[in-house]
Amino acid sequence: MSDVFTTRILNVTTGSDETVADLTQECERFLEQAARGRDGLLNVFVPHATAGIAILETGAGSDSDLLAALHHLLPADDRWQHRHGTPGHGRDHVLPALVPPHATLPVIGGRLELGTWQSVCLVDTNKDNPDRQVRLSFLG
After folding, report:
1. Are 24 and 120 in contact (CB under 8 A)?
2. CA atoms 42, 99, 80, 67: torsion sign
3. Mind listing the pLDDT tens digit for each residue in 85-139?
4. How far is Cα 4 from Cα 87, in angstroms, rounded to an integer?
5. What is the DSSP string of 15-80?
6. Which residues are paired to 111 by β-bridges?
7. pLDDT by residue (tens digit) across 53-70?
């Protein structure tokens, strides 16, 4: 069993629009200090009831496609029983069932092992809460 566990909190401002925020560079910077060349696992966790973590390609339209798909699956209208905040906010509380609030990723030689086009992203559809925390934890 490993005896090395390091964690850090990222404070992320997502603004007043639905967003897919790329956290890959922050994850890599964290691993430079925490992993120091070792193998292990990186856990990315967002402790919020209305946000998730996704691994996907960004910059080529997939991030916008994800938000469009979520709009289709989870319309921002008055059908939701959870009814406070912005109209349709109840959908934001269903989001983590589709985009989980965590991801665990392999770290090899201190580097995040992602596919060529993969990025680590915070998915936030909640316009009422622009300030998020993301916990990065390395176990190696």
Report:
1. yes
2. positive
3. 788 889 999 999 999 999 999 999 999 999 999 999 999 999 889 999 999 999 9
4. 45
5. -SS-EEEE-HHHHHHHHHHHTTT--EEEEEE---TTEEEEEE--SSSHHHHHHHHHHHHS-SSTT-
6. 108
7. 999 999 899 999 999 999
Dihedral angle computed from the Cα positions of residues 4, 96, 55 and 102, in that order, rounded to the nearest 10 degrees: 0
Burial code of 41-63, b = ≥16 C-beta within 10 A, e = fewer?
A: ebbbbbebebbbbbebbbeeebb
Q: Which two tokens stand for residue 21?
A: 């925020």
> DSSP assignment, residue 93?
H
In the numeric block, which tokens belong to residue 30?
């964290």
| CA atoms in the 13 A half-sphere facing the CB of 22 | 14
